[in-house]
């Protein structure tokens, strides 16, 4: 028997009639926002979504407003046919595939800014990024109207920003974080891993090893500065250009000197031309 296909829905009116039909039948709806280039990490989000709601919509939209001028928007991997085939295997009910003109028609003038949570980590390094994410996710939530929306913890700062937006704007949706899926050698799954050369791919798991070393050394409340300096030196020696390695409060994302409340270790580093991020709980 062939697997049922996942329809690609490209207009808002079509999306709304699908969702209205499901709602009329009393069905719940989950949204998994993505930029496509789907990998097993995304499919794990879809699998989890299927346990949380009767219907699962996966949005595929490479959002221009969250890329900086020197970032990879124009070359970001796009393969709708492969994504739809993966979504059919994962039994997603619909792919929401708006185009840029429909998302940002002429005259579009709204930006959502989240203070505090975006002050550190990727915030200062990617000006406008989280505002772009917050704005597009708010639109996606308004378009689909899901009961629950799922986001990977690999982008933990993004997850916290979206939780803040949903709480502050009283959005009637549950924001659900899903633990990071990893390769057997520890590398977090990411659409950008495909940019790594073979040699870089061999080195890349050192990122997760550095996080684990810092988490281990700081778990009991010891000062974080020493373990962070050691791990940064090891990553640099391995060929990474470290943008940040920090231990931060898991709720506020403010850096901590010692761990006394739920905290996570965060890293962003370039390996060659590829920017990798990762984080783990302490
Ligand atoms: O994590 C992503 O893929 C994107 O930032 C998101 C949440 C789909 C918004 O464009």
Bound molecule kinds, no repeats? pantoate
What is the residue-averaged pLDDT?
97
Give the CATH architecture of the largest domain.
3-Layer(aba) Sandwich
**Uncertain parts:** none
Can you tell me the number of structural domains? 2
Distance between the termini: 46 Å
Profile the largest sheet: 6 strands, parallel
Strand order of the largest sheet: 1-4-3-2-5-6
Q: The CATH topology of the largest domain is what?
A: Rossmann fold
Gyration radius, rounded: 19 Å
Question: How many beta strands in the DSSP annotation?
Answer: 9
Walk me through the structure.
This protein has 2 domains: 8-178, Rossmann fold; 191-281, Pantoate--beta-alanine Ligase, Chain: A,domain 2, CATH 3.30.1300.10. The mean pLDDT is 97. A hairpin with a 2-residue loop joins strand 8 and strand 9 (274-281). The chain is of the alpha/beta class and 282 residues long. The strands form 2 sheets. A 6-stranded parallel sheet has the order 1-4-3-2-5-6, with helices on both faces. The longest helix is centred in the middle third of the chain and has 16 residues, at 129-144. The protein has helices spanning 12-24, 40-52, 80-89, 100-103, 122-125, 129-144, 156-168, 198-203, 206-218, 225-238; strands at residues 8-9, 29-34, 55-60, 94-96, 148-152, 174-178, 240-249, 263-271, 274-281. The termini are far apart. It is globular and about 55 Å long. The chain binds pantoate. Pantoate binds at residues 33-35, 63, 66, 133, 136-137, 155, 158. Pantoate binds next to strand 2 and helix 6.
């Amino acid at each position: 028997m062939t697997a049922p296909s996942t329809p690609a829905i490209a207009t808002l009116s079509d999306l709304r009639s699908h969702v209205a039909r499901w709602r009329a039948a009393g069905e719940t709806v989950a949204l998994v926002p993505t930029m496509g280039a789907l990998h097993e990490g995304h499919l794990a989000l879809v699998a989890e979504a299927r346990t949380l709601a009767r219907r699962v919509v996966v949005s595929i939209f490479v959002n221009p407003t969250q890329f900086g001028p020197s970032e990879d928007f124009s070359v970001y991997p796009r393969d709708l046919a492969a994504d739809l085939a993966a979504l059919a295997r994962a039994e997603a009910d619909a792919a929401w595939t708006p185009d840029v003109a429909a998302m940002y028609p002429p005259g579009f003038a709204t930006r959502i800014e989240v203070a505090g949570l975006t002050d550190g980590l990727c915030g200062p390094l990617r000006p406008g990024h989280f505002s772009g994410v917050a704005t597009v996710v708010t639109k996606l939530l308004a378009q689909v109207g899901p009961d629950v929306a799922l986001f990977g913890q690999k982008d933990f700062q993004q997850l916290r920003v979206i939780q803040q937006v949903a709480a502050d704007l009283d959005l009637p949706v549950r924001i659900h974080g899903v633990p990071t899926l990893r390769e057997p050698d520890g590398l977090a799954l990411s659409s950008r891993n495909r940019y790594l050369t073979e040699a870089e791919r061999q080195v890349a798991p050192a990122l997760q090893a550095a996080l684990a070393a810092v988490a281990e050394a700081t778990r009991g409340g010891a000062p974080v500065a020493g373990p962070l300096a050691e791990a940064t030196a090891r990553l640099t020696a391995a060929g990474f250009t470290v943008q940040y390695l920090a231990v931060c409060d898991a709720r506020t994302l403010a850096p901590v000197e010692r761990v006394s409340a739920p905290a996570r270790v965060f890293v962003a580093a370039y390996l060659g031309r590829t920017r990798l991020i990762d984080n783990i709980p302490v």
